[in-house]
């Protein structure tokens, strides 16, 4: 069989950028900057490598599990301000978080003036985006002073369009111009300037995105993302005991795993570096010598996991709408009509396995919001099926790996493992890229399904 490979317009895609061979952009997450001790660790990491030139900090995160992130305190504080209530207690709690960091680092530095400005702007109702962004803004100022690096306000270099998407061209140009004469700089994460001139934030965890945008704009050789874990794990450690870590994963594999619930990096952080072919290294601030996980371009052929699969992830809370109609396959437009009803109701579909006379649509319950009766009535009106019913309580498990397409018997091993564990696979979907296999199981079988697939590919390979 001859397979023609066309990408987009059919032309071979080339990375348009010449990378700046040694420049690294480093982003530190909230837990890596939660207190003076963590901030010092981050600074030591930055200073240990002169190529770590542009630093993107988050706001101080949790110092212990019951702690509150500064970003959450800021949201809370602004909520009070917006209602016209007294917010001074929460604001001074925020102020003390920074004061503790500053004194713990033995710095001669004050953010008192900034706190005053924030208080005034809260009273003027600058909005919750502005409020939330101040966590990164203040942390950026403190870190810049501690490192002796210039501070670049993200509102001067990251720009959004009126529809809320990133204004890529304007942002890239501003970043390049501003950083051209700065060998080192600290650029706070999470926010930029909206089309209306007011501060606008990305969604939660968005400092990952800022780091990626900066790395893409300056054509970094590497984007290091420092967090509190040594990279991605093959499976969720709450389900599989001490899972192996993933050494190398491609952008696409990561997208598949993230979509199915594996979270370390913000979903949107892939795109700005992906187009420039810049790898991301997830590293642990508390264990800097650990190699972490390398996220590499899809063309990367080396270092395919010894386990054939790269990772397993999954999510609960899906439903299946099962439709049956004799001669369905010859009724032109049947599937389209069903999908139209879902689209008109703003519901996206996850998977759609079908046979000659039946089709199933798998839907995330979060999208349907309990509105099944109405949706079924509309489908019935539109396509008049012989039978139709909803099956609730479905979990999806994704087995992802670029090694799967070149290995015979992967599906057989997955289903043998499930059969052994007496788990019924209710749905099977293999993407055309052969990069992933998605299996639908009953929610009660979810954890066990992940464990037995992990065992057959990883535990068994180690024995
Ligand atoms: N501080 C923000 C949050 O808590 C953004 C970030 O940490 O990336 O979501």
Describe the structure.
The protein is an alpha/beta fold and 463 residues long. The protein contains 14 helices and 15 strands. The chain has helices at residues 36-48, 70-82, 88-104, 112-123, 128-147, 168-179, 207-217, 251-259, 270-274, 334-344, 365-368, 372-383, 410-420, 446-462; strands spanning 24-28, 52-57, 185-186, 191-193, 199-201, 222-227, 248-250, 280-284, 293-296, 311-324, 349-351, 358-364, 387-400, 427-430, 436-442. A 7-stranded mixed beta sheet has the order 3-2-1-6-8-9-7, sandwiched between helices. A 6-stranded antiparallel beta sheet has the order 11-12-10-13-15-14. α6 (168-179) packs across α7. The protein is globular and about 75 Å long. Aspartic acid is lined by residues 30, 58-59, 69, 71, 135, 189-190, 204-208.
Offer a concise description of the structure.
The protein has 14 helices and 15 strands. The chain has 463 residues and is α/β, with parallel strands linked by helices. Residues 1-17 have low confidence and may be disordered.
> Major β-sheet, in short?
7 strands, mixed
Helix content: 25-40%
Task: Average the pLDDT over all residues and give the rounded result.
Answer: 91
Low-confidence runs of at least 5 consecutive residues: 1-17
**Cα gyration radius (Å):** 25 Å
Give the topology string: H per helix, E per strand.
EHEHHHHHEEEHEEHHEEEHEEHHEHEEH
């Amino acid at each position: 069989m001859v397979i023609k490979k066309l990408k987009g317009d059919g032309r071979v895609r080339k990375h348009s950028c010449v990378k700046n061979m040694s420049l690294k952009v480093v982003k530190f997450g909230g837990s890596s900057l939660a207190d003076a001790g963590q901030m010092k660790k981050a600074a030591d990491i930055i200073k240990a490598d002169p190529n770590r030139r542009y630093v993107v900090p988050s706001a101080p995160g949790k110092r212990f599990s019951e702690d509150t992130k500064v970003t959450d305190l800021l949201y809370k504080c602004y909520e009070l301000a917006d209602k016209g209530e007294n917010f001074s207690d929460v604001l001074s709690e925020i102020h003390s978080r920074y004061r503790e960091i500053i004194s713990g680092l033995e710095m001669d530095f004050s953010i008192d003036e900034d706190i005053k400005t924030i208080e005034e702007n809260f009273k003027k109702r600058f909005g919750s985006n502005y409020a939330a962004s101040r966590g990164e803004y203040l942390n950026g100022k403190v870190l810049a002073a501690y490192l002796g690096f210039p501070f670049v306000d993200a509102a001067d270099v990251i720009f959004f369009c009126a529809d809320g998407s990133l204004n890529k061209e304007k942002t890239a140009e501003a970043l390049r111009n501003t950083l051209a004469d700065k060998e080192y700089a600290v650029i706070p994460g999470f926010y930029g300037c909206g089309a209306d001139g007011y501060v606008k934030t990305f969604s939660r965890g968005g400092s990952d995105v800022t780091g990626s945008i900066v790395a893409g704009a300056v054509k970094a050789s590497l984007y290091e993302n420092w967090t509190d874990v040594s990279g991605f794990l093959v499976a969720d450690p709450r389900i599989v005991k001490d899972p192996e870590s993933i050494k190398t994963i491609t952008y696409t594999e990561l997208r598949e795993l993230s979509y199915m619930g594996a979270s370390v990096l913000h979903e949107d952080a892939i795109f700005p570096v992906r187009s420039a072919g810049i790898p991301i290294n997830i590293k642990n601030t508390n264990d800097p010598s650990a190699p972490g996980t390398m996220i590499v371009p899809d063309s990367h052929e080396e270092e395919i996991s010894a386990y054939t699969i790269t990772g397993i992830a999954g999510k609960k809370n899906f439903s299946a709408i099962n439709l049956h109609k004799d001669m369905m396959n010859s009724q032109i437009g049947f599937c389209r009509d069903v999908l139209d009803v879902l689209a008109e109701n703003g519901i996206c579909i996850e998977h759609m396995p079908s046979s000659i006379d039946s089709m199933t649509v798998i839907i995330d319950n979060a999208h349907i919001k309990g509105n099944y009766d109405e949706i079924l009535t509309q489908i019935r009106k539109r396509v008049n099926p012989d039978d139709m019913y909803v099956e609730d309580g479905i979990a999806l498990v994704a087995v992802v790996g670029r090694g799967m397409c070149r290995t015979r018997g992967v599906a057989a091993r997955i289903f043998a493992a499930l059969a052994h564990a007496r788990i019924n696979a209710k749905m099977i979907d293999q993407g055309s890229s052969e990069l992933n296999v998605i299996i639908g199981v009953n929610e009660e079988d979810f954890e066990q399904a992940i464990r037995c697939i992990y065992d057959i590919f990883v535990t068994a390979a180690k024995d």
